[in-house]
Write a structure and sequence with these properties.
Length: 225
């Protein structure tokens, strides 16, 4: 099933064309990575999907609905950032529960879902800790748990491993791919790191100057002569 259709979207900033008539479909359950050098339009694409930027032209269809002009909070999409953006004064449990509270879930629904996710992400023993009592990899998992909690259609990840040291990054790459596979969620991942893209993705979209340069599986791209 097609979950996202980017229907010829263009985004300009003054005379800069950040994204140029991008036309593609993303399938439900796909781990798709946008790869390319700084300034090629990856973040702008992600921000348009999240509703933080509006395209000048084209439409964004999410789950069959035209969301092009919908604000972020009306879209069934969540984001994970490089700096985690966890609330430092809240416990792990409260961080994960936060998005569910905004959605007006009942206390027992919130507790159930929070426990479920913390177990799933092997954070069961950390519920009452604050983020400063966790390692970088654990914080990243809390951020992921929080983003997954409301069960969004699409998860947007903007260089989420950038803050991790090289050793931990390899481990978290494997974990992240595993979490994506087990949840069956659609992940839209942005990175300039080719190894990261090759390790995790079902599909890699190589961007250059606002356009798609290559689009295929890691095998198709990697073994191309
Ligand atoms: P990437 O994420 O691949 O590094 P971006 O999407 O951030 O690329 O940027 C694409 C192009 O758009 C760059 O030339 C960048 O300078 C420009 N750009 C992005 N955001 C803005 C903005 N808010 N105002 C002006 N130019 C921007
Ligand atoms: P990245 O390179 O990690 O994609 P950037 O540092 O390019 O991110 O962008 C960070 C923020 O700055 C974004 O909100 C983006 O819209 C904005 N931005 C990027 N390029 C420009 C620019 N040339 N002028 C103004 N704002 C920009």
């Amino acid at each position: 099933d097609v979950i996202v259709h980017l229907d010829k979207i263009t985004k300009r900033f003054g005379s800069t064309v950040a994204v140029d008539k991008l036309d593609m479909e993303i399938m439900a359950g796909e781990f798709v990575t946008f790869l390319g050098p700084s300034g090629c339009g990856k973040s702008t694409t992600l921000r348009m999907l999240g509703g933080f930027e509006t395209p000048n032209e084209g439409r964004i269809i999410l789950g069959g609905t035209d969301v092009t002009s919908q604000p972020p909070n009306r879209r069934d999409v969540n984001m994970v950032f490089q700096d985690y953006a966890l609330f430092p004064h809240m416990t792990v449990g409260k961080n994960v529960a936060f998005g569910l509270e905004l959605k007006g879930k009942t206390r027992s629904e919130i507790d159930k879902r929070t426990d479920e996710l913390l177990e799933f992400l092997q954070l069961g023993g950390f519920r009452d800790r604050t983020p400063d009592q966790l390692s970088g990899g654990q914080r990243q998992r809390v951020a992921l748990a929080r983003a997954l909690a409301p069960d969004p259609k699409l998860l947007l990840l903007d260089e989420p491993l950038g803050a991790l040291d090289a050793k931990l990054r390899g481990q978290v790459q494997v974990e992240l791919k595993d979490i994506q596979r087990r949840t069956g969620k659609t992940f839209f991942f942005v990175t300039h790191d080719q190894d990261e893209a090759l390790t995790m993705s079902d599909r890699i979209v190589v961007m250059n100057a606002g356009r798609v340069e290559q689009d295929g599986t890691p095998e198709e791209l990697y073994f191309r002569p």
